[in-house]
Amino acid sequence: MDHTSLPVRQSGEKKQVQSRGNMRIIFSGLFVFACFVLAFSYVLFPKQVYFSGIPKKVFLSDNGLQFSFRGVEEKTVGEFLQAQGLMLTEKESSFPPLEAPLSPNMSIFVKRTHEVTVKIDGEEKKEWVEEGSVDDAISALHLDLDEDDIVSPLRDTVTFRRQTIVVTRVSVTEEVAEKAVAFEKRANEDDKLSWRKTVVTQKGEKGADRLVYKVSSHDGKEVKRTLLRTERIKEPVAEVVTQGTEVKFGKSHTGAASWYAWTGTMAAANPWLPKGSFVKVTNTENNKSVIVVINDRGPFVPGRIIDLDKVAFQKIASVGAGVINVKMEEITN
């Protein structure tokens, strides 16, 4: 064996090891540089897609509906949505935005909007709102509503495209009104006052009540009025009428009385007493009496001293009796 060649061989092997180490360092540096360039380029050029060659899995939430897609090869969010036939109006949006590049396991959220018409305070407002409840639409439009205001349809109803929402303003107020209270009429008698006189001894005065109402109005028009309470603010004063009862009698006559239908009043006919004079006629069988005025002549039948109007006759006897015995007293006052 030639031992002189051994050191030369070992020297060559050391050079090969060093060469391989240098290559590893060079390749490592190139990989790091490539990664840096890739990352730097992604920051500077976000519209470029660096996963275009890799089929991706994408999650989609379209107005609350959840979907997942596999093998997606589109480059941007907009291209992906277009490939799925999902078009956005100018009032709708997505997150991430349409120009954002797709990446594996990306979640895309689509916000849908539609136009609704709100009728409120005599005006019509057309607004674009996100899909949701009527209450959500009211909040999005910053409408100032009171708790009593009526919203149609109901606030928890889901809105839809071209829907009309009607807001009715409701106001509840208290109103006060006054109502006159009628006075009662009282009658008394005075035996020192002529029977033909009636005197108002106390003048009646109306009282007053205060009425408190709860008034409900819709858009300024009253729809309901409820009486809450009544307060007496002035008591009425009764009217007192005094009727005289003093009767003074003159001559007295007895005889028969008949009846006839003449004026339909408390009147009678007599052969001799002056017209306009008054007499008291008493049925001698039952002591019922009536005062009548003489306004006619008759009866011209022997024994009969007075012919009573039917109305007056009925007060002291039955008209079926025809003729009754009476006492007739002349009244002088």
Question: Can you describe what's shown?
Answer:
The chain is of the alpha+beta class and 333 residues long. The protein has 4 domains: 56-111, Ubiquitin-like (UB roll); 113-168, Roll (Ubiquitin-like (UB roll)), CATH 3.10.20; 174-243, Resuscitation-promoting factor rpfb fold (Single Sheet), CATH 2.20.230.10; 247-331, Barwin-like endoglucanases (Beta Barrel), CATH 2.40.40.10. Helix content is 17%, strand content 46%. The chain has helices at residues 6-44, 77-83, 134-140, 310-313, and strands at residues 56-62, 65-72, 93-95, 106-111, 113-120, 123-130, 150-152, 163-168, 170-181, 185-194, 198-202, 207-218, 221-234, 239-246, 249-260, 267-269, 278-283, 289-296, 304-309, 324-331. The strands form 5 sheets. It has a 6-stranded mixed beta barrel. A 4-stranded mixed beta sheet has the order 2-1-4-3, with no helix packed on it. The protein has a 4-stranded mixed beta sheet with strand order 6-5-8-7, with helices on one face.
